[in-house]
Amino acid sequence: MNPYLLTTDIMEAQFGPVHAEVLSQTRRRREVAVKVRRTGQVLEYAVVSFDPAGAAAYPAIDRKIRRGSLMGQTFRDAGVPFLREENPPTKVRLSERLRELFGASEEHGLRIDATILVGLGRLCYARNHETYSPAIKWPGQVR
């Protein structure tokens, strides 16, 4: 994936502005739903495991993210290099809960596991397990 093009950029190009709704959160882990601001449609469900060293290196950015800011956009807006090391995307059968969350009749969505590296030293900030709604059309039909 282009390190300058975020998954939220792809979503916003198709659906308009999105925001993160934190579903649950502890110091090390959170569940988040990324929703279309205008309609409330859920486009992504993610489980994030924060790396304490990465969070400690960028405390102001970390505070914004933990208050619900979108991770990639927050680092990009702060001018901090942001890189996603992704495992190959996989098509997954959506659980009943995720189909309900996405409002999807389709049985499959896209799963991406990514390590989030930040700064010039590429410090690990988080490990994300992301599941995307079947409503999203990915560039170049790669996904």
Structure description:
The structure is a single chain. With 143 residues, this protein is an alpha+beta fold. It has one domain: Chorismate lyase-like (Chorismate lyase, 3-Layer(aba) Sandwich). Helix content is 26%, strand content 38%. The protein has helices at residues 7-15, 52-57, 59-66, 71-77, 96-102, and strands at residues 18-25, 29-36, 42-50, 82-86, 90-93, 108-118, 123-132. Strands 1, 2, 3, 4, 5, 6 and 7 form a seven-stranded antiparallel β-sheet that branches. Strand 2 and strand 3 form a beta hairpin. The longest helix is centred in the N-terminal third of the chain and has 9 residues, at 7-15. The N and C termini lie close together (11 Å). The mean pLDDT is 92.
List keywords for this structure.
143 residues; Chorismate lyase; seven-stranded antiparallel β-sheet; 7 strands; 26% helix
Name the shape in a single word. Answer: globular
Report the helical percentage: 25-40%
Number of domains: 1
Low-confidence stretches: none
The H/E string reads HEEEHHHEEHEE
CATH superfamily: Chorismate lyase-like
CATH architecture: 3-Layer(aba) Sandwich
In CATH's first tier, which class applies? Alpha Beta
What is the rounded distance between the termini?
Answer: 11 Å
Count of runs of 4 or more consecutive helical residues? 5
Cα radius of gyration in angstroms: 15 Å
Q: What fraction of the residues are assigned to beta strands by DSSP?
A: 35-45%
Biggest sheet: strands, sense, closure?
A: 7 strands, antiparallel
- Return the structural class: alpha+beta
Mean pLDDT: 92
The CATH topology annotation reads as Chorismate lyase
Number of strands: 7
